[in-house]
Amino acid sequence: MSSETDRIAKTKPIMDSISPTFCLAKWHHTTIYLHTGDTHSCYHPSPHHIPKEEIEKDPSALHNTKEKKQERLKMLMGEKPKGCQYCWNVESLSDDHI
């Protein structure tokens, strides 16, 4: 096994114990396009706009937008957010696809 495969093999059971639809990227990764005011936590879904009102209330909204929070909640509840459909399609191919 490669080190990447080993890492995945160790991490996946932990994530699955939280929820079968849990994704670390929604919590730990962000790309912020300051020139357009958009963000996303993964490169597969399209970026979404960061509402100015959210940033004015809480600067952490640069990463923690209401949209991302709703998607995270869905994941914690075992639901599959629509924006993550690419990953759901890949994961449904077989146990070896992550």
Structure description:
- By secondary structure, the protein is mostly helical.
- It has one domain (3-91).
- It is built from 5 helices and 3 strands.
- It has a 3-stranded antiparallel sheet with strand order 1-2-3, with no helix packed on it.
- β2 and β3 (48-49) form a beta hairpin.
- The two termini are 15 Å apart.
The radius of gyration over CA amounts to 15 Å
The computed structural class is mainly alpha
User: What number of domains?
Assistant: 1
Q: β content, as a range?
A: 5-15%
Helix share of residues?
40-55%
Enumerate how many helices there are, as a single number: 5
Label the overall shape.
elongated
In whole angstroms, how far apart are the ends? 15 Å
The ordered H/E elements are HHEEEHHH
- Sheet having the most strands: 3 strands, antiparallel
Which regions contain 5 or more consecutive residues with pLDDT less than 50? none
Briefly summarize what is shown.
Helix content is 45%, strand content 8%. It is mostly helical. The two termini are 15 Å apart.
Topology (SSEs and partners):
Elements: H1 3-18, H2 25-28, E1 31-33, E2 38-40, E3 48-49, H3 52-57, H4 66-76, H5 85-91
Antiparallel strand pairs: 1-2, 2-3
